[in-house]
Amino acid sequence: MSGRIGFVSLGCPKALVDSEKILSQLRAEGYQLVASYQEADLVVVNTCGFITPAVEESLEAIGDALDQNGRVVVTGCLGERPEVIKARHPSVLAVTGQADVRGVMEAVHEALPPESDPFTSLLPSPGEGLKLTPRHYSYLKIAEGCNHRCSFCIIPQLRGLQKSRDVGEILYEAFRLVASGTKELIIIAQDTSAYGVDLNYRASEFQGREVSADLASLAGELGALGAWIRLHYVYPYPHVKELIPLMAEGKLLPYLDVPLQHASPRILKAMRRPGGAKSHLETLACWRRICPELTIRSTFIVGFPGERDEDFEQLLDFIAEAQLDHVGAFTYSEVSGADANRLPNHVPQEVKEERYERLMVLQQHLSLAKNQKRIGTTLEVIVDDYGEVPGELIGRSKGDAPGIDGTVMARSDGTVKIGDIVEVRVTDADPYDLQGDVVGRIQ
Ligand code: SF4
User: From the alpha carbon of 153, which atom of ligand 1 is closest?
Assistant: First the structure.
């Protein structure tokens, strides 16, 4: 046994995948993972540094770990800005950047040398490592970094230009995950739709055939694995249209997470993002013509510098017309180092909050109307958890991603297990969630 490690994982699903890799390596080298600071010989904190509240949460988590344990290695997005961490917490043992498994392991080895020889340990292959999600769904990261330069974002500074993973490596990882019980693969990257551009779409081998490293080919192969395939963080490029027929054919889930961020062309230009309400609506209409059952999730920033009343009204009009299925919104907040900080005419906080409330109230009305139309229909639902009452299940339809979208609460005969896929007849709805009865089983 090499020593006991406490682990704190903050941030988005992309950070969660990095945590899984670090934890798998720690386990492979004989370190024991423990659930409390007191039991641990050392604590690793995987941080998020995307927006100011996330930076603050990360700095507080590091402070907690230092107070309660004292020996702390920091990694993750905020680790790309060691000066911020060292200024608040000079006693951390080491700071490494995001996705830097090797850097974390070097820091851990220095503070807590491994007892077993890592080269004689049985190292897990990618996809066979430790998972932080339930067995029935897994996040699959297909690229790191981003080639865009959105003015409110420092991810390209933190993570660098996009680096796509080899297509064969991704597919073998996906294959192993499905073989070991994963029923839903959630595909993530900073910009999933740009997959393969940096590889010049270089083909590689998967099960004896050549597969090109472009998103449509990758998605087609993933779709043949027999699991639910869900795409997140899709930038609204024209070529995304190529994926929609795969959704209509049932190879991919009819679900797209497309962060549009705004609808006013003036504000989108200031954000250095494409389009506006008119082109967004044309794109959505085109996708829905090909796949009418498509669920669309999007996120928006309200109160971006320079946002006038008329820009915000344009955003509300767009949301009313677009009839999006799931909407997330954030009030604009400064990110240290982002170009948008230098834009003129920042919006007062109370105006941002009032706009946020108006947007969310509008979306609640739209979501409630959409959900009420589902009463009486039958949906395929994957079971994530048990409810409080015997026989009660908490699951998600194909249109709901874990952790961010709605849930389906269903009554069953008590024989359904977590990870099962069942048919649920919907009996009731609120703006976010559905209720119903299990009426059949799929898997
Ligand atoms: S697409 Fe824009 S917001 Fe998303 S990671 Fe890249 S620069 Fe940031």
Answer: 8
Q: Single out the residue of 287, 293, 218 nearest to residue 258, CA to CA.
A: 287
- Output the pLDDT for position 151: 96
Cα(299) to ligand 1 centroid in Å equals 12
pLDDT at residue 341, rounded to an integer: 94
User: What residues in the chain have per-residue pLDDT under 70?
Assistant: 1, 116-130
Structure tokens at 388: 């409080």
Residue 118: per-residue pLDDT: 42
Give the C-alpha separation, 268 to 24, whole Å.
Answer: 40
For a mutational test of ligand 1's pocket, the pick from 80, 147, 191, i.e. the residue with the most ligand atoms closer than 8 A to its C-beta, is 191
Distance (Å) from CA 378 to ligand 1 centroid: 37
Q: What is the pLDDT of residue 116?
A: 52
Q: Angle at the Cα of 386 (from 381 to 388), degrees rounded to 5?
A: 130
Q: Are strands 408-411 and 392-397 parallel, antiparallel or unpaired?
A: antiparallel
Question: Locate tokens 């010049």: which residue?
Answer: 200
The phi and psi torsions of 393 (rounded to 5 degrees) equal -125, 150
DSSP H or E stretch at residue 439? strand 434-441
Q: Which tokens belong to 251?
A: 């190879």
pLDDT at position 85, please?
92
CA atoms of 31 and 113, how far apart (whole Å): 10
Q: How far is the CA of 166 from the centre of ligand 1 (A)?
A: 22
